[in-house]
Amino acid sequence: MGRPEFEEPQTFVYPSIYVSTSGMITVLLKSDVSVEMTIDRTLRLVNHHLNMAVATNSRGTASVLHTRSVKVSQNNTTTDAEVNAVKAKMTTECILFGSGTNCYKFDYNYIEPALPRFTDMSTDKSVNLLFASESYGSTLIQQCLHLAGTAEYENLPKGGVIIRINGIKITQTGRGDVTVVSGPKFMKISPSVGYVRLNTHFTEMAVDKDGVLRMRRGDHTINSCNDRVILSNGKIEAGLDNEGQ
Fold first, then answer.
1. 194: buried, middle or exposed (CB in 10 Å: 19+, 13-18, 0-12)?
2. Residue ranges with strand state E in 31-90
């Protein structure tokens, strides 16, 4: 009896570009990182292993940051956030925040108790933002294939690479860090450190390796440190810890 024949497994080559049947483009990178995009440059940068993602729409007016302990969703002048056990909703009129049964709101004059009316942040809203774009669908597959076919690649020292596609510059260093630049929109993920950042003309948000959040939109800020979350509208500053104090 002859020996059974086995096919040797093919080595996956990074970076690779995949066009889905839903008319989206995915750039697959090392370190379990991918960049997902639509024709209109709605972008999602994700590290699947760390369950960490950032996304922004084509105009940069809506953005999402998602990690295991921090969730932020900004849409124009409204920002919803959940940092550990503290929840917040920031609007032009006021800031609502709470933890457990304790909930407060403040404007530019005073702080008072309030009823909790927070957005459910349990799911990854970066996926919702990506599919909220009108520039995806099976009718756009040919355009996506054209963009994938005309992508440009540039090798960098120490195993890094640059991919230019759809007017977007994607850079991955040899250690796995990824940056995505599209006009004023900037996104970064570091799989080795556990750092994620997103900047647009509308907002700035980042979570460091210790899960510390720094977020700004206009005068509105959220900062977390030592299990405490501090919110500000530029005039009044207030906060809670994970125990609701």
1. middle
2. 33-37, 43-47, 52-56, 62-66, 70-75, 78-83, 86-90
24-79 residue pLDDT tens: 999 999 999 999 999 999 999 999 999 999 999 999 999 999 999 999 999 999 99
pTM of the model: 0.91
Start-end of H helices in the chain: 125-131, 141-149
DSSP state of 11: P
User: Residue with structure tokens 């900004």?
Assistant: 74
CA-CA distance, 60 to 209, in Å (whole number)? 25
Q: Are 235 and 89 in contact (CB under 8 A)?
A: no
Chain centroid to Cα 239, Å, comes to 24
The single-letter code of the amino acid at 203 is T
For residues 217 and 203, the answer to whether their CB atoms sit within 8 Å is yes
The single-letter code of the amino acid at 70 is V
d(CA 163, CA 122): 33
- How is the chain split into domains, by residue range? 16-241
Residue 221, beta-bridge partner list:
216, 232
